[in-house]
Amino acid sequence: CQIGNFSIHIALRNLRPPGSKTRKIPYPTKNPFTWIFVLVSCPNYTYELGSWLGFTLMTQCLPVAFFTLVGFIQMTVWAKGKHRSYLKEFRDYPPLRSPILPFIL
Question: Domain named 3-oxo-5-alpha-steroid 4-dehydrogenase C-terminal: which ranges (predicted)?
Fold first, then answer.
């Protein structure tokens, strides 16, 4: 999941030329970790959630599970906001994308 998260951050960085503030719609690249852009608007949060879920399962610790839940709620709020701004800013934004979890949320 961390490799996926890193790949997404690189893809997002490469959307803007240096010194530009122009925003573009993120699309998958040749890197297979970016293919999740077909399904979600904020795959960096999807991968982050996957990492925390894995850590929670490995540790089987209630405080870690609580932290994961709170983190998921916060990342969902951020993802929904970003998704709304993409829909408002780009008329041709892919309509089937979900904010954070494919087909669910």
Answer: 4-105
Q: Is pTM beyond 0.90 here?
A: no
Domain-located, residue 103: no
Asked, for residue 99, whether it belongs to a domain, the answer is no
Return the C-alpha torsion angle 84, 86, 92, 93, nearest 10.
Answer: -80
Beta bridge pairs of residue 40: 98
Is residue 16, in this structure, part of any structural domain at all? yes
Count H helices, E strands: the chain? Answer: 3, 0
> Do 15 and 26 contact (CB within 8 A), yes or no?
yes
Report the domain count for the chain. 1
Q: Residue 19: how many CA atoms within 13 Å on its side-chain side? A: 0
Is 63 part of a structural domain of the chain? yes
CA 60 to chain centre: 25
What is the tens place of the pLDDT at every residue in 49-87?
999 999 999 999 999 999 999 999 999 999 999 999 999
